[in-house]
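User: Need the bound-state model for pyridoxal-5'-phosphate:
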Amino acid sequence: MQDISNEGAAARLTIDLRALCANYRTIARHVAPARAAAVVKADAYGLGAARVAPALAAEGCRDFFVAHLSEAAALRPLLPADARLFILNGLLPGGESACAALGAIPVLNGLEQVRAWVACGKALGRRLPAVLQVDSGMSRLGLAPEDIDTLLAEIDMARDLDLQLVMSHLACGDEPENGANPDQLARFEALTARLPPVPRSLANSGGCFLTPGFHFDLVRPGIALYGAAPHPGHPSPIQPVVRLEARIIQVRTIPAGQGVGYGLTYAPDKPARIATIGVGYADGWPRHLSNKGAAWFGDTRLPIAGRVSMDSMTLDVSALSDGTLHYGDMVELIGPHQPLEVVAADAGTIPYEILTSLGRRYARVWITE
Ligand SMILES: *Cc1c(COP(=O)(O)O)cnc(C)c1O
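Assistant: Bound-state model below.
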């Protein structure tokens, strides 16, 4: 049995900052001479941006992407003065002066955002730093091709903005064979040719491991830093970062036919041993894993038995002989036997959603050396 640093916690989330930094170095080496930024939105995909971003800054990263102004404000004091903080969602009405005061750089995604930012700069009497996003085919954020005509007619790009980067985003960067990737690349080349010659950025994690033509000047990896394969199902140089373990609260033997959990949806036709752990959907463990998925004790797979509750779930531990598993023992939920990708697949989702849902009740342990 292992100790748990946060006394009495039901589960331990171990975040390996060394592996995270190694992933950053792997990506940075792979894309050089392009620069590697880090996407730390959504609290660094649930891992904790306040620890993750400074660790990456110590590796030399100077470009950080968040989604919201509030995320940029929280990170600003934790980063070196020469680090740039980019806001992917750009500006929302009323946020302009706070963004300018913070020195954060909005990704301007539409003409309204460009106009508001230029007006804010004029009011402040200076050119404000900006990123321009163009839509190269994902139809989510960014200027449409026809918006670029309006933009160039309306705005003096050199006088009105300090344009630091032009970017776009890949819809299928995680699928190396997908024909949408070369299509988006060609559209990005054509759209940026109409704009001032500033540094360009197209690649997310998946894009970092497409051909070098996708790298441009700056890449924007997120999920690969946090340990998931950039191209699911393909060999990957990325190391796992997260491990999740939970303690056994109780073990019981039930007679044949007795139901387990809400709705009594698990009722084995022979006697079974059931163990309860203190992790549930309020901790971000998907309720879709009811009667699906598993935990591991050593090399033994322990299927989830019955519905996942808010604060607990039950495992069928009959595969272990009686007396093997004790009150307080640790089982693995995410780790070497059950990688993040497997948990996500069992739940019918993706590693991003599992990570960004990780609960606040876990004892968090950081491996730093
Ligand atoms: C989230 C995001 C990224 C990072 O994507 P990953 O697939 O996690 O590497 C990059 N760029 C934009 C615009 C994003 O929204």
